[in-house]
Amino acid sequence: MRILLAEDDDDTRHFVERGLGELGHNVISAENGEDALHLAVTEAVDVIVLDRMMPVLDGLSILKRLRAGGVAAPVLMLTALGRIEDRVDGLEAGADDYLIKPFAFSELAARIQALGRRTAPAAAATKLAAGGIEMDLLAREVRREGKAVLLQPREFRLLEELLRHAGEFVTRTMLLERVWDFHFDPQTKIVETHMSRLRAKLNEGHLPDAIETVRGVGYRLRAA
């Protein structure tokens, strides 16, 4: 699994990073709340491990912003605060699980594994839909508000990625890897060019813009 670890204590962060890496997980980490929020929004992760008390922005504030922004990745919150009220606050803000420090690494790993299983898809979807756009993956057909939209193969794949993450930002790097299988930056405007063509086709007939672009963050298909 790809895991985001947000923990400001260097010893704890390095210990958990090493342990999860030895179990075969891909770990990206942040040592303050601002970096954690940025990574959670711009990177595709399976589970987020979030420390409650962090500098710049605390874990509870991060969690509330993520849920308000449509980020649905399961969150395991770490805290030194053991009161029932603190745990309730975290769960009500959108945390999926809670672990009190100090903790055994084996328990942390087991809880992460359980969260990953909880969100694993039961079967591959053959149809995707969001924001008035419908895609049939088997028939290779796309419709917006019931009207057929003819797309080239790369445009189809771009839209598929946006639909799979509707309401969430998808970064340029993610699109290069998933649509073109590039694991490097080709230093061209290949993503921007194809995205422009896709947007024009989806918006034909003066429909509202289906795709939101935020410089330095990525692209988001409007979910509604």
UniProtKB/TrEMBL annotation:
GO CC annotations on file: cytosol; protein-DNA complex
GO term, biological process aspect, one: regulation of DNA-templated transcription
Modified residues (4-aspartylphosphate): D51
GO terms, molecular function: phosphorelay response regulator activity; transcription cis-regulatory region binding
UniProtKB keywords: DNA-binding, Phosphoprotein, Transcription, Transcription regulation, Two-component regulatory system
Source species, domain of life: Bacteria
Record-annotated OmpR/PhoB-type domain positions: 125-223
Xref: InterPro entries: CheY-like_superfamily, OmpR/PhoB-type_DNA-bd, Sig_transdc_resp-reg_receiver, WalR-like, WH-like_DNA-bd_sf
Keyword Kinase among record annotations: no
Protein name per the record: Response regulator transcription factor
Species for this entry: Novosphingobium olei
Lineage of source species: Bacteria, Pseudomonadati, Pseudomonadota, Alphaproteobacteria, Sphingomonadales
